[in-house]
């Protein structure tokens, strides 16, 4: 039989991949009366694994991890190969390795090309959103950040998180006027806030990134004020509530999609 002269097509190269094992418990944030923290063993290693496109990327990642956790705790299992990475991947990955990750234990940060997934345990919902927001900001709009973090350890914060249940308190477009759907959710939050008692709670407004930042910051604050006024009008003590507006600065989803922008237009309740 004559051998075929046809060449066998080569497989496309794999995408760059970095996976950090956070099950080797990371350092928790300082304990305080305001924020519950995760109790962890700071002696366990942080494992870095995956395939990156060059030695410079590997060195940058390991250097950043050693800054965060100490050289003795970082275990290097990163390989270098001819993989495809998005533009400026090294810079984006290093930027995502920020101090907010130190609030996470028992999980993993996986950066697969421009897809990012964070899992593990944090102290409460406020920390969960903070970690995800920092990742999304560092990654930029071309990356999709998936949040699989679990919050816990603060019973009063958990009560508010469960009452809100990841729902979006809606307003009329471009205004601080609540919709009927928004007020229906707030009626449930009234009950939860009354159960929280005299604990201080901050009402925080967030927006997407459409339009000028200054206008969005102002709108997010106006919406937080509108929520506070509604809650006060329905029996929540005014002295227990404060407001803050971050505008587009703390996204939890991709602002390049309609669904992502809708998730970023939200009200957050943080127990202080």
TrEMBL record:
<protein>
    <submittedName>
        <fullName>OmpA family protein</fullName>
    </submittedName>
</protein>
<feature type="domain" description="OmpA-like">
    <location>
        <begin position="158"/>
        <end position="272"/>
    </location>
</feature>
<keyword id="KW-0732">Signal</keyword>
<dbReference type="InterPro" id="IPR006664">
    <property type="entry name" value="OMP_bac"/>
</dbReference>
<dbReference type="InterPro" id="IPR036737">
    <property type="entry name" value="OmpA-like_sf"/>
</dbReference>
<dbReference type="InterPro" id="IPR006665">
    <property type="entry name" value="OmpA-like"/>
</dbReference>
<keyword id="KW-0472">Membrane</keyword>
<keyword id="KW-0998">Cell outer membrane</keyword>
<feature type="signal peptide">
    <location>
        <begin position="1"/>
        <end position="33"/>
    </location>
</feature>
<dbReference type="InterPro" id="IPR050330">
    <property type="entry name" value="Bact_OuterMem_StrucFunc"/>
</dbReference>
<dbReference type="Pfam" id="PF00691">
    <property type="entry name" value="OmpA"/>
</dbReference>
């Amino acid at each position: 039989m004559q051998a075929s002269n046809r060449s066998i097509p080569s497989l496309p190269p794999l995408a760059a991949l970095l996976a950090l094992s956070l099950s080797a418990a990371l350092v928790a944030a300082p304990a305080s009366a305001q924020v519950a923290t995760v109790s962890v063993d700071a002696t366990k290693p942080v494992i870095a694994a995956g395939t990156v496109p060059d030695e410079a990327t590997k060195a940058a990642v390991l250097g950043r991890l050693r800054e965060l956790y100490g050289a003795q705790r970082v275990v290097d299992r990163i390989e270098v190969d001819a993989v495809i990475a998005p533009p400026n991947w090294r810079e984006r990955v290093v930027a995502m390795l920020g101090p907010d990750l130190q609030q996470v234990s028992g999980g993993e940060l996986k950066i697969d090309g421009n897809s990012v997934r964070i899992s593990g345990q944090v102290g409460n919902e406020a920390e969960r959103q903070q970690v995800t927001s920092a990742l999304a900001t560092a990654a930029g709009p071309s990356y999709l950040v998936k949040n699989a973090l679990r919050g816990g350890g603060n019973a009063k914060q958990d009560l508010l998180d469960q009452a809100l249940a990841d729902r979006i308190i809606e307003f009329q477009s471009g205004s601080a006027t609540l919709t009927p759907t928004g007020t229906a959710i707030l009626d449930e939050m009234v009950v939860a806030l009354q159960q929280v008692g005299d604990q201080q709670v901050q009402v925080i407004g967030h927006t997407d990134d459409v339009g000028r930042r200054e206008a969005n910051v102002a709108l997010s604050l106006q919406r937080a004020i509108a929520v506070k006024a509604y809650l006060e009008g329905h029996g929540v003590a005014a002295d227990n509530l404060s407001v803050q507006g971050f505008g587009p600065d703390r996204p939890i989803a991709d602002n390049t999609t309609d669904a992502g922008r809708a998730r970023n237009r939200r009200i957050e309740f943080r127990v202080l």
